[in-house]
Amino acid sequence: MKNEKRKISKVTLIFIHSFPFFNKIEYFCNRINDKQVNYEELIESRDKRKTGKFRLPYGYFYKRIINNKYSNFVEFHDELTDNILFSECIRRQCDALKTIKSKYQLHFTPNEGGDDDSVYAVAIEPGNYISFEQLLNDNPAIVAKDDFINATIRNLVEITTELNSLGIQHLCFAPSNILVRKSDNEVRLLLHGSFFLPTKMQDTFFEDIEGFIAPEVMSEAQCSDRSDVYSLGKFIEHLYTSSGLPFELKKVIRKAIAEEPENRYASVAEMYSDMKMRTNIRKTSTIGIAAVIIALFVVNTFFDLVPNTEPIEFVKPVEEPVNESLLDEGFNPLTELGPDADSATIAKAIQDYMSNDSDKVDEKKMREFQAKAEQIFRKQYTKAADLILSKIYNNERMNNSEKNFKASSKEVMEELVEKQKELASKSSLSDATTQRIASEIIEQLTEKKKKDLEKIEKAKAEESSINKNKE
């Protein structure tokens, strides 16, 4: 069969003619019908055709089978190669890429031809690549995959930071100008816009994707690291087109895509640091709010289960010293006991007062005694509760899993309830009153500790940003 001549039917030719992909071999089919070419010649012609072709802003990416191996090429648009400066820009970038170590950078070799040895294409390192635009078109749901967006942004920030450190700006983070390795969807960059600004052909180079390019690049052919901030900000905004930009990132993107370069972040690293800080604060706030809800739920559930044998008496805490009327008749229990007296001491003083001077006791004086007892209980319980709540409201525990955090919260709430019962038994206050006070204190301390943690996280993020800028 090796040398057998094969007849191609008219039906086969109609089928081939219906698909542009096969049009280029129609000529060979006709030759087969005319008995001018054999099967091996047809296979050889297939090896020379272009496959997997897709458009980039500056040309077409395609694969060519040469000696049974796939090779990657980008063939440039004629309007670019006609510019005498374009070939020199390609050569300069090829030399500059030798210093770039990032795995997210694709390397290439110029293909030269013609009388003037102009560069009409580049041969790219092996690999199976598609454009980011094609990836989103084929699989739009991928943006919802765990860590896909975060990993994409992180990798682009890494390669852009390295490029900027070498005085290179990519300038265009349009989805059609970012390549993706098909095996793991990792991003790859090829040509960088700052090399081509001397050609003054930015309108041609960035045709149809002007929305991703900083204004100063399009209008003045001028660029800086802030130009990359603008373009990457536009790309991030594009990633969230379907789901909506998260609230904590809106201010970041608004600053990144400011019209005037001086109003943007100085670098993509600074922008990324602000993104992470705001995202972490949002997570911490969410955990804190959840913790408050859990704490209040546990406390309220416990109090609901404990039977109240007497009505709750709401007594406003005394903020000022006790009325001087208590010093009448020569008995000064509140003054003599001092501000640091514990609940048991004040309870005994009240009991002695009532037994020795029961004929002189009135409701007003008893309310004042009880208010003092409340003050002492508040002070003691606040101190104890603060220590107990610190067991879960710290950076280490707040970063634990939700399951571990809930388990710790339950243990802490049980300890808080036991401490409330212990102090209540030593005071002259009813269980209902101490329960109410304990609930108020827990809520106040929880809110305070949540805010303190947020301040610490923010300070750390700012310090980290300052250190990175110094570096």
Q: Which of globular, elongated, flat, extended, rod-shaped describes the shape?
A: elongated
Low-confidence stretches: 1-8, 13-28, 31-37, 42-49, 308-340
Q: Ends: how far apart?
A: 69 Å
**Helix proportion range:** 40-55%
Radius of gyration, Cα only, in angstroms?
38 Å
**What is the strand arrangement across the widest sheet?**
1-2-3-5-4
Structure report:
With 471 residues, this protein is α+β, with helices and mostly antiparallel strands. It is 54% helix and 9% strand. The chain contains 19 helices and 8 strands. It has a 5-stranded antiparallel β-sheet. Strand 4 (108-113) and strand 5 (118-124) form a beta hairpin. The longest helix is centred in the C-terminal third of the chain and has 40 residues, at 431-470. Mean pLDDT is 77; it is low at 1-8, 13-28, 31-37, 42-49 and 308-340.
Give the gist of this structure.
Helices cover 54% and strands 9% of the residues. It has helices spanning 10-17, 20-23, 26-33, 39-47, 78-81, 86-96, 132-138, 148-165, 202-205, 215-220, 225-239, 247-256, 268-305, 333-337, 343-356, 363-389, 395-398, 402-425, 431-470; strands at residues 50-56, 59-66, 69-76, 108-113, 118-124, 129-131, 179-181, 187-188.
Features:
single chain; five-stranded antiparallel sheet; disordered N terminus; 8 strands; elongated; 19 helices; three-stranded antiparallel sheet; 471 residues; alpha+beta
